[in-house]
Amino acid sequence: MEWTPGLGEHDRARLWQHLEKHPAIPALRRAEDVDAAFRHNAKLVFFLTGTLYDLRDVCARGESLGMHVFCHLDLVQGIGKDPAGIKWLATEIGVRGVLTTRSTLIRAAKNEGLMAIQRLFMLDSESLRTGLEIIASSRPDAVEILPALVVPSMARRLPTDKISPFIAGGLVETVAEIESIMAAGALGVSTSKKELWAYERA
Fold first, then answer.
1. pLDDT at 8 over 80
2. Using CA atoms, how far apart are residues 85 and 168, in angstroms rounded to an integer?
């Protein structure tokens, strides 16, 4: 089956609007978790690990449930880490977006009409500086800051005008943590903790 690649502008706008009310993004580590994400009203899921066969199943199931599947290019096994691999994901598998730390893959994904999220690990001030240079070059649709728990403490140092919209992921386990991250300016929070997938912003 050949898919229509990517998401149109209308669908992208609706996705961001959905996150404003439902900011918890299910981070799936098993293909069978896609149904649990649907039960929690998810419109967007991140598939973080597994094989391209798992990804194919998640995309097919997600599409039937009205969900958009983004995959982690760096971790899903069997994907060519090059423009041809990205095109195959868009046209043959039905991926709607990607996450990656590699700026070259961000550009390739955008060329195929996919939404592209640049992952940025905040280890120290140097990683922030380098990350901002990468973002300026790759121009992703959004940035994911990891680990998420650093966001509240670094909020005043984050140049939100250069990384907006941004989400956060990693180590989030409580509603209080989600709310503190959102208060720091994040649009969404990715988490594999199922108990948080139903969280709604007041």
1. no
2. 26
